[in-house]
């Protein structure tokens, strides 16, 4: 049961959603009161937003990216070999291109 939960949480979608909620809550504090702009509180909220974003990046995103690289997730640099059908279609395309010349 815990293994399944861990796999669910380690998926990128759940972690991205959690990060978005935290950043959204921090960004929600950056607001303008009616027609008055209160510079002090707005600047403080922006600084807090940058601090929260930095902490999330260095505490959550960076370690999970390194963990995913160690596990080999998303490491699909090798393209699969083309199928016989793909090879045949490529040959047909090349032959048709030669006939048009």
Notes on the structure:
There is one protein chain. This protein is mainly alpha-helical and 101 residues long. The chain has one domain (2-75). 75% of the residues lie in helices and 0% in strands. It has helices at residues 2-10, 12-28, 39-71, 84-100. Helix 2 runs antiparallel to helix 3 (39-71). It is elongated and about 70 Å long. The mean pLDDT is 80.
Which features characterize this protein?
single chain; 101 residues; mainly alpha; 4 helices; 75% helix
Report helical residue fraction: over 70%
Proportion of beta-strand residues? under 5%
Largest sheet composition: none
Could you tell me the radius of gyration in angstroms? 25 Å
Number of strand segments: 0
Uncertain regions: pLDDT < 50 for 5+ in a row? none
Number of helices: 4
Mean pLDDT across all amino acids: 80
Number of domains: 1
N-to-C span: 64 Å
Structural class: mainly alpha
SSE pattern, N- to C-terminal: HHHH
Basic shape: elongated
Characterize this entry briefly.
This protein is 75% helix and 0% strand. By secondary structure, it is mostly helical. It has one domain (2-75).
Q: Layout of helices and strands, plus pairs?
A:
Elements: H1 2-10, H2 12-28, H3 39-71, H4 84-100
Helix pairs in contact: 2-3
């Amino acid at each position: 049961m815990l293994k399944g939960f861990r796999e669910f949480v380690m998926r990128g979608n759940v972690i991205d959603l959690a990060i978005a909620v935290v950043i959204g809550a921090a960004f929600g504090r950056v607001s303008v009161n009616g027609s008055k702009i209160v510079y002090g509180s707005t600047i403080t909220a922006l600084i807090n937003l940058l601090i929260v974003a930095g902490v999330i990046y260095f505490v959550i995103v960076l370690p999970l990216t390194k963990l995913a690289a160690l596990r080999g997730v998303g490491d699909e640099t090798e393209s699969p070999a083309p199928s016989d059908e793909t090879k045949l279609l490529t040959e047909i395309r090349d032959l048709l291109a030669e006939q048009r010349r």
